[in-house]
């Protein structure tokens, strides 16, 4: 492998500064070690109704199961209508909403709640003792198809059209009896507000929330928003005030109600819990979330909602997964690999009925708790990560290292005669990068752009190092006994994976902010960072071995002669087949990467979960069955005087292991320790798979050679007989 000392020195400086930033991130993550479990109070009421028990009894039974808090959603007209114990009906009169109930006390409560939060230009009138009219407008009116939910949680959209008013989603306060019952049985209480900005005054809604928290004497650690709007975020009002501030020459504008809300949360030590989407690819869109988080210096956590399709996985219908094991696995992965710290559960479902047995919930939550102990993550009051925003100037040397690494890649692919040109490019690139980073211009594009470039460098260089080792083995005939060949192959493979950690450091250094650690912003170049190095490694192979070069040629770099031989060569069928196989492998590899991967088979699920019970983070299938073992096997065969014609195929398969190492750390929500554990488990399991593969190859060759000798001897006997 060609190593330019100037470029190597620049890379070393970049890695050193990357290590500093990575250590700062590690320190930030080290105290992020507690999690909480919520139960939706309204969902638990359904269990009580099914079993014919009071909530007092059900809450008493749920004590000691591992549930930390009762999550009490703010009442709305919509939720009250769904409560079988409440007699309430609504109808539309034009755009106005008419609310009627025989319960006059309920009507008075609803009327008072609307009056407490409404904007001044909205009218709410108590027309009769049992009737309320709320002035509506065209923006309030909504219509859509009805969504029906089957007994197993399956959803079906019907052709029926439902129409109504968004006024039915206005928050009406919280059920005092639910709060008191939860406190009585020792549960914490977290209130989930529902806010409709077109009707509610942002300032009044903030006051109503904090009044409910203080009056009920609860001490929530977090807040989860119902609906799709952050409390106190009124876009139309914000836009109007922003325009006024701009006209007055004010450069900085903060919306007063949102700032008041943020300060109130901070004063009460309440963090914002963002709900992860069902695809696990980010968080549910909530208007105003980023504005609130910036005001609170990202005092936030990720939360996982046990979706309907998850609660129906209590019996997963595969061996050893009939009693909530898969639900525990899903929650465990959320906490470890996606930094989730709040789990909000609903009652589990089996055979169309809610599971009322408290032991079922205790078993699931105990399962999670025991497995998290090895990572020192324990149930307890949330302790958020805190703002992580290191000095951006520390990234300038990192950018220089990334540029130097790319120049070294070019130097190893092509024959570069003028080294001075590379040094000029290094200087110009570093100067331009320094200007962009220091100025903060297009900061997100710069961060993610350099993270992407950095992620592709060291897998490519590790591939180059592997290829140079292969050529050295052929040139110097470095052959060994089978045992020694295996250990040599193992050392080379592990060394190659360690080389790729240079890209891990580059990537981590560039994505150094709370928004990445919390998953608010995600690294968008994951798939590109896997495909490009694989293609570069193929070019590296051609650089070192050329295309049909004369035996003994030791030129490094793709030459014009290589290109000419390739252009004039006849394409053979095996080459077409090989290209097709490579394409299929690449398609499968990419299809199985990310959150949209196909559903794994039952056998694969069992294998994955088995590894999760053994390791803090399970090794990836593509690493332990393809990337790592094929690299070991390739060098084993090379060191035992075999495999020269198969090297290109093995190199492609080996590249999967190299890019996988960096890909593990590309998921910025996962703690560094978890990603390190995962990589370590891949090396361990991959070694065992490689050993088994080599034994299988040797056994197959032994059987083949014996069969060949037998056939040869039989032919000899026939000739002798003639």
Layout of secondary structure:
Blueprint: H1 5-29, E1 34-40, H2 41-51, H3 55-62, E2 69-73, H4 77-82, E3 89-93, E4 96-100, H5 104-117, E5 124-128, E6 131-134, E7 141-149, E8 155-165, H6 176-184, E9 188-192, H7 202-215, E10 222-223, H8 235-247, H9 256-267, E11 271-275, H10 289-295, E12 300-305, H11 308-311, H12 325-337, E13 340-345, E14 349-350, E15 353-354, H13 358-372, E16 378-379, H14 395-413, H15 419-439, H16 443-476, H17 482-499, H18 501-510, H19 514-517, H20 526-545, H21 560-568, H22 573-591, H23 602-614, H24 621-639, H25 647-666, H26 672-721
Parallel strand pairs: 1-2, 1-13, 1-16, 2-9, 10-11, 11-12, 12-13
Antiparallel strand pairs: 3-4, 4-6, 5-6, 7-8, 14-15
Helix pairs in contact: 1-14, 1-18, 7-9, 9-10, 12-13, 14-15, 14-16, 16-17, 16-18, 16-20, 16-25, 17-24, 18-25, 20-25, 24-25, 24-26
Can you walk me through this structure?
This protein is α/β, with parallel strands linked by helices. Among the domains are: 5-28 and 388-705, no CATH class; 76-172, no CATH class. The chain is built from 26 helices and 16 strands. The strands form four sheets. Strands 1, 2, 9, 10, 11, 12, 13 and 16 form an eight-stranded parallel β-sheet that branches. Helix 12 (325-337) packs parallel to helix 13 (358-372) and helix 16 (443-476) packs antiparallel against helix 18. The radius of gyration is 31 Å and the shape is elongated. Mean pLDDT is 89; it is low at 149-154.
């Amino acid at each position: 492998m060609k190593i330019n000392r100037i470029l190597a020195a620049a890379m070393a400086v970049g890695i050193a500064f990357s290590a500093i930033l990575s250590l700062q991130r590690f320190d930030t993550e080290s105290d992020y070690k507690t999690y909480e479990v919520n139960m939706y109070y309204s969902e638990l009421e359904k269990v009580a109704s099914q079993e014919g028990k009071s909530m007092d009894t059900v809450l008493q039974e749920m004590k000691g199961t591992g549930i930390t808090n009762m999550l009490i959603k703010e009442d709305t007209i919509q939720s009250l209508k769904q409560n079988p114990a409440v007699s309430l009906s609504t109808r539309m009169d034009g755009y106005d909403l008419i609310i009627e109930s025989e319960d006059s006390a309920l009507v008075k409560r609803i009327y008072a709640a609307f009056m407490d939060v409404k904007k001044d230009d909205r009218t709410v009138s108590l027309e009769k003792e049992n009737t309320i009219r709320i002035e509506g407008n065209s923006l309030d009116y909504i219509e859509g198809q009805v969504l029906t939910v089957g007994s197993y949680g399956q959803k079906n959209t019907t052709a029926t059209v439902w129409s109504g008013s968004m006024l039915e989603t206005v928050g009406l306060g919280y059920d005092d009896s639910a709060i008191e019952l939860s406190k009585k049985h020792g549960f914490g209480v977290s209130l989930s507000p529902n806010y409709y900005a077109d009707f509610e005054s942002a300032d009044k809604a903030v006051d109503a929330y904090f009044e409910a928290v203080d009056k009920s004497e609860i001490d929530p650690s977090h807040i989860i928003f119902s609906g799709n709007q952050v409390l106190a975020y009124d876009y139309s009002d914000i836009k109007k005030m922003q325009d006024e501030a701009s006209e007055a020459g004010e450069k900085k504008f903060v919306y007063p109600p949102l700032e008041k809300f943020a300060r109130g949360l901070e004063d009460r030590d309440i963090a914002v819990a963002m709900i992860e989407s069902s695809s696990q690819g980010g968080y549910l869109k909530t208007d105003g979330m980023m504005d609130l988080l910036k005001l609170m210096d990202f005092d936030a956590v990720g939360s996982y909602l046990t979706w309907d399709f998850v609660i129906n996985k209590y019996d997963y219908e595969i061996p050893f997964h009939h009693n909530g094991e898969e639900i525990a696995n899903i929650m465990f992965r959320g906490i470890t690999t996606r930094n989730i710290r709040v789990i909000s559960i609903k009652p589990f479902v089996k055979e169309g009925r809610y599971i009322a047995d408290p032991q079922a919930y205790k078993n699931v939550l105990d399962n999670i708790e025991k497995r998290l102990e090895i990572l020192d993550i324990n149930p307890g009051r949330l302790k958020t990560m805190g703002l992580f925003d290191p000095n951006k100037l520390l990234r300038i040397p990192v950018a220089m290292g990334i540029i130097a690494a790319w120049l070294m890649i070019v130097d190893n692919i092509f024959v570069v005669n003028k080294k001075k040109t590379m040094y000029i490019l290094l200087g110009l690139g570093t100067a331009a990068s320094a200007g962009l980073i220091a100025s903060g211009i297009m900061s997100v594009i710069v961060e993610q752009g350099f993270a992407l470039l950095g992620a592709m460098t060291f897998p490519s260089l590790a591939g180059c190092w592997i290829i140079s080792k292969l050529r050295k083995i052929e040139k110097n005939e470095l052959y060994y006994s089978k045992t020694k060949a295996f250990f040599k192959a193992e050392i080379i493979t592990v060394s190659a994976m360690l080389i790729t950690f240079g890209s891990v450091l580059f990537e981590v250094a560039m994505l150094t902010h709370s928004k990445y650690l919390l998953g608010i912003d995600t690294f968008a170049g994951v798939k590109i960072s896997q495909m490009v190095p694989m293609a570069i490694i193929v070019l590296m192979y051609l650089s070192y071995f050329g295309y049909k070069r004369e035996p003994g040629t030791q030129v490094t770099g793709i030459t014009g002669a290589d290109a000419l031989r390739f252009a004039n060569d006849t394409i053979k069928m095996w080459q077409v087949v090989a290209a097709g196989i490579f394409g299929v492998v690449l398609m499968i590899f990419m299809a199985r990467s990310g959150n949209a991967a196909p559903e794994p088979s039952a056998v694969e699920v069992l294998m994955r979960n088995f590894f999760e019970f053994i390791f803090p983070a399970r090794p990836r299938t593509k690493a332990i069955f393809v990337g790592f073992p094929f690299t070991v096997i390739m060098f084993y065969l090379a060191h035992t005087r075999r495999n020269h014609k198969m090297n290109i195929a093995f190199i492609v398969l080996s590249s999967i292991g190299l890019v996988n190492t960096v890909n593990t750390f590309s998921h910025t929500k996962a703690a560094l320790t978890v990603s390190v554990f995962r990589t370590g488990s891949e090396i361990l399991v991959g070694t065992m798979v490689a050993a088994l593969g080599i034994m299988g190859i040797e056994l197959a060759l032994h059987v083949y050679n014996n069969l060949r000798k037998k056939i040869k001897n039989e032919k000899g006997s026939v000739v002798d007989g003639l």
